[in-house]
Write a structure and sequence with these properties.
The structure holds two protein chains of two kinds. Chain A is mostly helical. Chain A is built from 25 helices and four strands. By secondary structure, chain B is mostly helical. Chain B has one domain. The chains are: A mainly alpha, B mainly alpha.
């Protein structure tokens, strides 16, 4: 019975392998049958597991596949608890609808089968990550999702930009993974175990400084995977991948792995104020920078990418103030409305024959009423308009920050500002696509086909109602996570009137942002006489440029992390090669004998260089050896 | 009456693998010179010889069970856990490289047996080296092994690069041998002994603080000579040139045997005088490991030739294995695990290279892999498994070996080494995945056509790939085995 958990985890892998081996499977409809039925089966089983899990009062259990090593004891095992059950349900549920959407979006692609292989492989990896019962299996899933995301980003690898984006994602993620690995080593050395149960229950026995060091390394991994400042520039580039894949991987699930991991280690995290503070500051910084960057992007997907980064920033803020339930709740609602927005964007791109520049869109409301409506729901949800999903979760985060008091009030104000920006850029996004006058007429635009409509409608319904699972009146998510976060002190919401006022303020923020967007992009208020002076125009231009160039951070980040690393390795190699081996040694050798010069062809010259090099290092090593004992004694 | 053979501790079984290899070589020589015979017969003889060698290696386990750790031939030949582990490694290498070296030799017209004899002789030399208790014996074994390798590198006489590689390998290798034998001489001058155990006992007796400088320098020279053979930085310069120039079908054998034998000997030296090594040689090994990890990663990033890339990756891997030598007994066992899994990956990679590129060729640009995946699924997948293994991806043996090695280093509080080794791993992902990327994902207009793979090749490459995966999923067996090897020294 408990082993049933393995089915939804491994079924996608089996499907992936099956599709991978069937190279003669050219018919799209047959591929659809296999991949969709496997995801429906795994979703049904997941629902069954979830229901029994609810009936049994969220009592967690583990399934051990086998023992990986004896000492330190590491098992290959999976755990079902509130957190992993929620993620399991979320991933396998979303995967059905996004796959259904993909069948239409990817249709006629020459690598149709390969896309579903990668897709199923991703679902498997993600489930390994969320179901893991120890840090090592989590790391395994962590690497596998990285790999499958890398494959999907560069799916259209004939485009150089796609390959480049894949490489960038890979390199930036390696920096994060490096931190994660060091953190793991620290954990093993401190706790002599990798098991979540054992490590997290013994957190209070460990000195705070050690915990701070461990968690600081671990959050580096989270920053990489969840695209937080300064490792965030890969996510906008990752939009080179197929849009439905972006919806699942780069909006709903994989990028939230960092948030998931931090909630998982929250029993450790709560003891370290330093780390929590770092998470808060970085989250806030990311939320602000990326929300600001989103206001003047022209690529329909890049706006959403920056918006994702910004929303992830909100989740990190929630974790930073100790509101772990709010973070998970926002993860849940965000998964639905962001997947909806991405799929809507996919439908628009498909209808406009792969046009992605929103300046060339406009007025699509009449031609694509359903998509416009659903995208509208997504926009309202992310802006935090009640009673849609985003309101409940965002309000909970804002209220949690407020309830910490003190300097956190300043953070609250800044987060609120980010929320205004969110509503503003999402309003702009919707208005430019669906409302304003078309600047370029594109022929034969039709609304999405049926396979795209169904997922849009389903996700739209969820985006409206999913927020009700955790309101101030009904704490669904909190109950679900009760056992997982048993030993964690959670920041609670303020009571009574304060909560109402805070809710009103955050509603006000949402409306303010949307209204501003309406004034600027629908009523063209900037063109009116009121703002017709040079100083103001310059300011607007500056803001636009800075936003479009992401405050020039991308360039700096590129230079430091990607180009710098490459250049460095090249430089050093060349320098060592030319100076050390060829230069110095040639000089010495040549001055020693003239005859060598005459007879030296390049080959013997090289060997002589190597010999000198050999002798040189031998002498150095001996010298070091002779010198050090004196120092030591 | 005590016979002479009893006094000198004569025992046939302990040297039997060496003897069988030499006899096989002699029989082959006899057939070549006297009766003209078909290649099939020669192949059969060679294969039987290798099988018999493996059988006698198995018999040595029996001898170990009755005698325990013991020495023979007036303390020249040693039978201990290290020698058993090393013997098994060499035996496996011979079995798994048989395919590619036989084909390579067969394509050398008229020189087929010459190549086979060289290989068998060199294997016998390395076996002797692994079994040696005495440093002079070690030197003899090393020379028998290496000289055949120098010749092997240059067997493709029509190829300029091959000739160059052979000459380079010979010149630099003999320099390393000089340094090694000079070290043995220094050791003998200062302590009047030349045995591995004797040295350790003598050092314990006079106390680590009072060891004469000549002994220390002598030991450095011996270790440097061995480090040259495993291509650890800063003595790595020969490896890329030799790997690139030598006939592809031989490189797998050449790279693995020398490394296996030298590492086993290094591990034994470290294990026997572990305190002394930890005390005096820590800095020395630390420098070598740091240089290997950093230089290897830096150079590997810019390689366009696959064989050179693997050579530089070997420098990094050597750094990893050496780092275990300075982190106690469990570090040594982790090193042995690493050695085993690395050799399995290396064998697989070079078998695949020789299948794709042909046996006798020298250069192998990365670009030549492009589009491999379209028509050669088996080769690409197994190639990816080996490369993932080298990179240290989870679920492959590479991850486990790096993992246990680094955790052990960590518990010895060698944080600098840990950080540098991990950094080189992180960089490593870049250059290990690039060939996979080119082979499988990157678009290519005219991909490689389907390559015919013989069944024996398929079996051996498949087996190696399965071992790489199995060691990643179920590493316990080998971990326990390597712990057993060092059990006596805990």
């Amino acid at each position: 019975m408990e082993n049933l958990v393995l089915v939804p985890v491994f079924l996608p892998l089996v499907t992936a392998i099956f599709l991978f081996t069937q190279r003669n499977l050219i018919k799209e409809s047959i591929v659809n049958i296999f991949t969709l039925s496997s995801s429906v089966i795994s979703f049904l089983i997941t629902s069954f597991i979830f229901i029994t899990f609810t009936i049994e009062k969220f009592e967690s259990y583990s399934v051990v596949l086998y023992q990986w090593t004896e000492s330190p004891k590491i098992d290959f095992s999976f755990t079902l608890d509130g957190l992993s059950a929620l993620m399991l349900l979320l991933v396998s549920g979303l995967s059905i609808f996004i796959q259904q959407f993909s069948t239409s979006y990817m249709s006629k692609d020459e690598n149709y089968r390969k896309y579903f292989v990668y897709f199923n492989f991703f679902v498997f990896s993600m489930l390994v990550l969320v179901m893991s019962s120890n840090f090592l299996i989590m790391f395994l899933g962590w690497e596998l999702v990285g790999l499958s995301s890398y494959l999907l980003i560069s799916f259209w690898s004939s485009k150089t930009s796609a390959s480049k984006a894949g490489n960038k994602a890979f390199i930036l993620n390696r920096i994060g993974d490096f931190g994660f690995l060091v953190g793991l080593m620290f954990i093993l050395n401190t706790f002599k175990s990798f098991d979540f149960q054992e490590v997290l229950h013994r957190a209070n026995e460990i000195p705070v400084n050690t915990i701070t060091v461990i968690t600081l390394f671990l959050i580096l991994g989270a920053f990489g995977k969840s695209a937080q400042f300064p490792l965030f520039s890969w996510l906008p580039d990752a939009m080179e991948g197929p849009t439905p894949a972006s919806a699942l991987i780069h909006a709903a699930t994989m990028v939230t792995a960092g948030v998931f991991m931090l909630v998982r280690i929250s029993p450790l995290l709560q003891y370290s104020e330093t780390t929590s503070f770092v998470v808060l500051v970085i989250g806030l910084l990311t939320a602000l920078i990326s929300a600001f960057s989103a206001i003047n992007q022209y690529d329909i997907k890049k706006v959403l990418a920056y918006s994702t980064i910004s929303q992830l920033g909100f989740m990190f803020i929630a974790i930073g103030v100790g509101a772990y339930v709010a973070a998970v709740f926002h993860l849940l609602t965000h998964a639905f409305f962001k997947a909806l927005l991405f799929l809507g964007a996919g439908a628009v791109i498909e209808a406009l024959h792969h046009e992605q520049d929103i300046r060339n869109m406009g007025g699509l409301r009449k031609k694509m009423p359903l998509t416009a409506g659903m995208m509208g729901i997504g926009t309202l949800a992310i802006s935090g308009i009640p009673p849609l999903a985003g309101f409940w979760s965002k309000d909970e985060i804002l209220a949690s920050i407020f309830s910490k008091g003190g300097i956190y009030l300043g953070f609250w104000a800044l987060t609120l500002f980010a929320a205004v920006l969110t509503a503003f850029y999402m309003g702009r996004h919707w208005l430019l696509i669906f409302n304003s006058e078309p600047s370029k007429t594109i022929e034969d635009i039709h609304d999405a086909p049926r396979n795209m409509k169904v997922p849009l409608v389903v996700l739209g319904i969820f985006s409206i109602f999913i927020g009700f699972v955790n309101t101030p009146f009904f704490h669904g998510v909190e109950k679900l996570l009760h056992i997982t976060l048993e030993e964690v002190e959670i920041t609670h919401l303020p009571e009574g009137l304060t909560l109402v006022v805070l809710a009103l303020i955050s509603i006000g923020a949402g409306f303010a942002g949307l209204f501003l967007a309406y004034l600027i992009f629908s009523q063209n208020i900037l063109q009116s006489k009121l703002f017709n002076n040079d100083g103001f125009k310059k300011l607007i231009k500056f803001i636009k440029e800075a936003s479009f160039n992401v405050l020039y951070l991308n360039k700096i980040g590129n230079v430091i992390f990607v180009a710098g690393a490459k250049l460095f390795s090249k430089r050093v190699a060349v320098i060592i090669d030319s100076i050390l081996i060829d230069g110095t040694v040639n000089l010495v050798a040549n001055s020693f004998s003239k005859s060598a010069k005459i007879t030296s062809s390049s080959q013997t010259g090289l060997v002589r260089n190597y010999v000198l090099y050999f002798g040189f290092f031998l002498i150095i090593l001996v010298a070091v050896f002779i010198v050090t004992p004196l120092v030591g004694n | 009456m005590i016979s002479i053979s009893e006094i000198i501790g004569f025992n046939f079984i302990v040297i039997s693998p060496t003897v069988v290899l030499v006899l096989t070589a002699l029989i082959l020589l006899f057939f070549t010179i006297t009766i003209p015979s078909s290649d099939v017969l020669k192949k059969l003889i060679t294969f039987l010889g290798i099988l018999l060698t493996n059988f006698f290696i198995f018999l040595k386990f029996g001898l170990y069970l009755t005698d325990g750790v013991s020495s023979y031939f007036s303390e020249k030949i040693l039978l201990d856990e290290f020698s058993l582990f090393g013997n098994v490694l060499i035996g496996l290498i011979l079995l798994f490289t048989f395919n590619s070296f036989w084909k390579t030799s067969a394509s050398l017209e008229g020189k087929t047996t010459e190549a086979i004899i060289l290989i068998l002789m060199s294997a016998s030399g390395f076996l002797l080296m692994i079994d040696s208790e005495n440093f002079i014996m070690l030197f003899i074994g090393l020379e028998i092994g290496s000289i055949s390798l120098y010749a092997l590198a240059g067997l493709n006489r029509g190829d300029k690069l091959s000739n160059e590689a052979s000459l380079k390998y010979f010149l630099l290798g003999s320099l390393a041998s000089c340094v090694l034998i000079y070290g043995v001489a220094l050791l003998y001058v200062s302590l009047s002994i030349s045995g591995v155990y004797e040295t350790s006992i003598a050092i314990n007796f006079i106390g680590a603080q009072n060891v004469p400088l000549t002994t220390l320098i002598g030991m450095i020279f011996i270790i440097v000579g061995l480090l040259f053979k495993v291509a650890a930085a800063p003595f790595q310069a020969w490896a890329p040139d030799v790997y690139q120039g030598s006939p592809t079908g031989f490189v797998g054998y050449m790279a693995t045997t020398a490394k296996a034998a030298s590492f086993i000997v290094l591990a034994r030296i470290s294990a026997i005088s572990i305190r002394f090594i930890l005390d005096k040689f820590e800095l020395f090994f630390t420098i070598v490991v740091l240089l290997s990890a950093l230089l290897g990663a830096l150079f590997a990033t810019n390689q366009t030739d696959l064989k050179r890339l693997i050579a530089y990756s070997g420098v990094i891997q050597s750094g990893f294995i050496l780092s275990g030598m300075v982190s106690g007994v469990f570090g040594i066992s982790a090193s042995l695990f690493y050695l085993f899994s690395y050799i399995v990956q290396l064998l697989g990679i070079f078998s695949i290279f020789s299948i794709i590129k042909g046996q006798l060729t020298s250069n192998f640009e990365i670009g030549e892999l492009s589009g491999l995946f379209l028509n050669n699924k088996f080769l690409t997948i197994s190639f990816s498994i080996f490369m993932f293994g080298l990179a240290g991806m989870p679920l492959t043996s590479g991850f486990v070996s790096k993992f246990i090695l680094i955790t052990n280093l960590w518990s010895y509080e060698k944080y600098l080494l840990v950080v540098v080794l991990m950094l080189s791993t992180v960089v490593g992902f870049y250059f290990y995945l690039r060939p996979i990327w080119i082979a499988s994902i990157e678009k290519n207009e005219n991909p490689l056509s389907k390559i015919d793979i013989s069944t024996s090749d398929k079996v051996s490459v498949g087996l190696l790939a399965v071992v790489t995966l199995l060691l990643g999923i179920l590493p316990n067996v080998l971990i326990n085995l390597t712990r057993w090897v060092v059990e006596n020294y805990i």
